[in-house]
Amino acid sequence: MANVVALPAVDARPVEALHYAPPEKHRRHSVLAILANMSGAYPLVLAGLLYGQWVLSWYFLGHIPRSSLDDPKYITGANWMHPLTYMALVASLPAFFVGLGLSVLYLLMIRSRTQPAAIRMTIFTALWISIYTLLNWDPAHVLYWWMD
Prior knowledge:
The protein is mainly α. It has one domain (about 30-145). Helices cover about 60% and strands about 0% of the residues. The protein is built from 6 helices and no strands. It has helices at about 30-40, 40-60, 80-90, 90-110, 115-135, 140-145. Helix 2 packs antiparallel against helix 3 (about 80-90). The model has no long low-confidence stretch (mean pLDDT about 85).
């Protein structure tokens, strides 16, 4: 026991943390996040285009557009919205499935906890169910007017 070296005195300083394995940096998947959010907002775009064309047609006609009399393709001033609305209606079913896939992929990539994932998927589902219900209910017969 002759070679025992005395340990230095303990200082009153706090001990620094050891950095053996730093936590993994949170990577933002910004492109995927933007695409997932845009696909979730697609029902709002669809409703905005359909009802926007109806309101614009109402403005240019001076009365509520009537089915079989006021064709949305031929209303001067509002006819530029017809191809946009057509493309939005045709692409709505593929947009739903692509949006669902992008949202699930985004949640898997960021390793989301249960609560944020549930909120994101609830909002996504509520928006799509609401646009489906709105188009089926068609309270002002806007879709009927547009399809006529």
